[in-house]
Each structure stands twice: as C-alpha cells, then as structure tokens.
Amino acid sequence: MLAKFLSKAISSKCLLVRGYASKPYTTQELVDVSNRYLLGVYKKPNIILHKGMGALVEDLDGNSYLDLTAGIAVTSLGHGNTDIAVALMEQAQKVISTSNLFHNENAGPLAEKLVNSTAYPGNPNEPWAYQAFFTNSGAEANEAALKFARKTGFQSGQDNKYGITAFQNAFHGRTLGALSVTPKKGLPRGV
Ligand SMILES: Cc1ncc(COP(=O)(O)O)c(C=O)c1O
To answer: Cβ(79) to ligand 1 under 6 A?
Structure first.
C-alpha cells in the first residue's frame, strides 16, 4: 500500500522541485535563482534535473538523459527506486537523526554486514575489514583515510612516517585535509 502510494507520488508531480517554491519556476528562472543564491562550486549545464527511473533522468522540460554520473558514484541503486523511497519514509516517520552521539538500530547491523562482506569466498569467517566508519560525504571519507594512514604511520614506530603522496590532477574533496593533497593549481589563494 505504502509502496504503491510512493511510486505514484514519485511518478506524478507530487515530489517536484516546485514543492519548495511558492510559484512554478521555469528552467531559466531556476537556473538564475540557483546561480544567484547558491555558492557556485561547479559550472553546471542549464537544465533542471527533475525526476528519474533507474539510470534515466528527465529535466523539467521533459528531455531524457542517460545518467552516467550517478551522483558521482553515489546512486548505484538508480533513481526512483521504490524500496529506497519506502525505507526513507518509514525511517523518517520513526526517528530522523540521532547524530553519532547515540546508538541506533540500523548503523550497527549495517556495519556488521559491510565488514562481513569483505570476507574472501573461501574463508567466510575471516573478513579483512574490522570496522566500518560512516560519513556524510566523499571528502570526509578521504579525510578519515588520511587520518588513519597518518596514525598508522605514527604508530609504526618509525619517525616521520606520516607523509602522504598525492598524484598531480588528483581530487579528493573540499575539506582542508583533502585539499592538502590536492594540487593547488586553479584553487583561489588562501584556500
Ligand atoms: C574523486 C572524488 N573524490 C572526492 C570527492 C568528494 O566527495 P563529496 O563531494 O561527497 O565530498 C569527489 C566529489 O566530487 C570526487 O569526485
């Protein structure tokens, strides 16, 4: 029942960007308002992506595209996925966020699944991972990886074994730690 309602809502106009606005916006108006009020981090094409199904997305003007970016590799289960929508809605109706100051009923079991999934097929009882670390963004994940690597270097007992080697043209995110291993070309002074 819930799944049916959600899939109807997703394919109808119920979940439009317009839900946030007091009047319907045209594509150009939305582009203009975004450029005016959102801090610009990337140059974006003048389309407004509005809904999708699987690997296809559609803009406000009804043009369809094959989504080859997948949210920069974070929407691997596709757009308009009813199972995801139902899970999000069910959780939002219970408790929306507990921060990382409290346990909740999902994070532990998910970490357990992830850790156990790193076991080699011939050796199911010996995953190579020990624990999972959940973050909100790629930059934080890379930031954590840098810290883990540096800590491991310090704990190795060998002096100064905490430098990080980075490739030219690499990108790791916009936190200061991630930027510290990002070649500076093109970054504004002071960043
Ligand atoms: C290769 C790479 N690393 C890290 C990041 C940072 O991810 P996020 O934007 O989620 O912080 C990005 C995002 O553009 C990326 O493309």
So the answer is: no
